Amino acid sequence: MSPSQLDSTASFGHGDASVSCSRPENNFLDSLPLVHSEKAVEELLQQTPVEGMDEHLIEFSEAMRTVAKALRRAAEGKASAQAEAAEWKRRYELERARNIQMERKERFAAEQNGDIDCERLKNSDNQFMQQNEAEECSEKACMKHGICSHEVLRDRESDSNSNVDRNKMMRKASFKLSWWCKGENGDQHKHDIVSFEKGNITTPERSSKQISLKWESDPQTVLILTKPNSVSVRILCAQMVRWLKEKKKLNIYVEPRVRVELLTESPDFDYVQTWEDDREILLLHAKVDLVITLGGDGTVLWAASMFKGPVPPIVPFSLGSLGFMTPFHSEHFKECLDSVLRGPISITLRHRLLCRVIRDAAKNEYETEEPILVLNEVTIDRGISSYLTNLECYCDNSFVTCVQGDGLILSTTSGSTAYSLAAGGSMVHPQVPGILFTPICPHSLSFRPLILPEHVTVRIVVPFNSRSPAWASFDGKDRKQLAAGDALLCSMAPWPVPTACQVDSTNDFLRSIHEGLHWNLRKTQSFDGPREL
Questions:
Q1: Helices (H), 247-344
Q2: Which of 51, 260, 349, 425 could bridge across to 420 with cysteines, CB 3.0–4.6 Å?
Q3: Pairing between β-strand 477-482 and β-strand 314-318 as defined by DSSP bridges
Q4: In the chain, how many H helices and how many E strands?
Q5: Under DSSP, is residue 424 helix (H, G, I), strand (E, B) or coil?
Q6: How far is CA 465 from the centre of its chain?
């Protein structure tokens, strides 16, 4: 190596090192100089040494290695700081949601006791709704159990042929959830998670208990969602709409596409209501008491994706192929709906994941893209690239592993019978709260799937030394590219999806894996053969 080359190389290395040590105004290291500096150091160290290299060059090489290690520690420190900021933000949002919920409880209790003047309460409620319009979309229906509502709403349908009762005040049906067990009182509540008695730690027995939903007021509004491009579903939808209106006197909402199909069949369906834009969809949870799906599991996923906050109880009818989440049969829809509307019914609370993408260019953890809720799983894969994915995984602030393979699946327990099962994950009861950590074709013989607790935040980062970007998909759609430095945060969402059970949660789950997957199905061993004496 000539002296001129040595001088230029040394000045280049020292120049990058000085740039990488500078801090921007937001107290985070700039990732671009870090990457360039580290690459320059690696290229310099990979050059073929010249014979007769003196001690000064050896010392310079060691110094460059020290600089490379420092740059890597700085990048890891930035990632750790981002994770800590995201956790504090999540705690702040949860605490704020609790405060809003407690305030609304107190106001509702005061209204029931007659301590507050009705007019003043109505005006203050209107002012509160205007100031928190965005939060109302996710918090309006949250009460004691997070999915019940007592809001007073006015139907704004302006159809000239609508009935008079469509313009009057409607009170959303309220209900309560309780733990129950066969042979015990269904109204028993279990508030104590851990109790201390005589120095011993005990937990309440819940293994045999189910969740029961009991209506405190009659449901008034029903939303019907259907699988498209199916003649049998279209015929069943028309029959169900006519029966619910004539026999149960319910207000009925359908998708705009379905309303057009119903009016094409008969103009008598003009009482069916729908929405016009996405803003009205965000307010559906405040109007709808019950959701009915006609299709398969995909229709249930579509119904859950429409609600960005609390979800009304869902009654899923099976008109698909497998149907892990659709226990009801369409042939007996009248008996099923009559039983559901009368109550009480057993339900399954299906947990969802709250996913947020944080770009490397973000100044802080608050600059995130719009959160996405998933009911089954979020998948991070290599897309069309021929290279292995390289993903760094963290659980809260603890390093988990580095995934090298086709990708990774973060699944709910409801999604344990979907993509995660095909990738080698375990089947888990849907009411078990947890996050399934399942690799996709890992290039390691010892990489086994994990089940993480529900309170953790999983962070997936694409490192700067990754050969290609990764791709994330949410319940099989909404694919997003994750470039080097981008991160995906996943935590348990506070709004579960309540689905009605035909018998109870455990019975429906076991029946679905027996009928849908033929789980452990084999011929019985012949009785005539060798026996122990």
A1: 256-265, 278-282, 297-305, 333-342
A2: 425
A3: unpaired
A4: 12, 24
A5: coil
A6: 29
402-437 residue pLDDT tens: 999 999 999 999 999 999 999 999 999 999 999 999
Average pLDDT, the chain: 78
pLDDT digits (tens, 9 = 90+) for 59-91: 787 788 888 888 878 877 777 777 777 777 777
Specify the long-range contacts of residues 68-76, CB closer than 8 Å, at least 24 apart.
68/38, 68/41, 68/42, 71/20, 71/34, 71/37, 71/38, 71/41, 72/38, 74/20, 74/29, 74/34, 75/29, 75/31, 75/34, 75/464
Model pLDDT for residues 372-412, shown as the tens digit of each residue: 999 999 999 999 999 999 999 999 989 999 999 999 999 99
More reliable by pLDDT, 475 or 26:
475
**β-strand 221-226 against 290-295: which pairing, if any?**
parallel
Cβ atoms of residues 252 and 245 within 8 Å: yes
Which H or E element spans position 511?
Answer: helix 505-517
R_g of the chain, CA atoms, integer Å: 29
At position 65, the amino acid (one-letter code) is: R
Contact 358, 454 (CB under 8 A): no
Q: Which residues are catalytic?
A: 297
Task: Give the mean pLDDT of 215-236.
Answer: 92
